[in-house]
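ok trying again, last paste got cut off:
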Amino acid sequence: MVPAPQAPPRNGRIEAYLESLQVLERLHRLLLDLIKDEFERLGRSELTPVQALLIYNLGTAEVTAGELRSRGMYQGSNVSYNLKKLVELGYLHHERCEMDRRSVRIRLTPAGQEVHDCVAQLFMRHAEGLEMSGVLDDPPLEAVNLQWRRVERFWTEQIRYIY
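nice, full thing came through this time. structure:
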């Protein structure tokens, strides 16, 4: 009987990377749950957490849907659907570009700005609570962010290499 092939042993760095991917995925889901809970508490259940986060990330910018996609934050059909819904609900204003009539520029309406402010206040409360608890001190969050930006650059290069 031939023994089954075994996976090569993994070193600690690879294990830590794989664990960080799982933590990152859980953190994103928890972030969406926190936004959902906040909006339910405020009686704004017409928005999904993804839509509220899209509004928050749009902020004061005026961009095209393509620009949102190119920022790497949203999938193509997802962003189109959510933008359409947000326009229908009155959170976004859209208009055709003067230069390129195929392109539509979007920006927040006053109602969209209210949503942005609600999410910003939620994030500020969390940041203050985390700061007071000392969670952000060891390792310093700035070092963690630097590391994630390096991972982001690596992943971006991997995608560029494919195409």
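cool. The chain is about 65% helix and 5% strand. Strands lie at 63-64, 92-96, 104-108.
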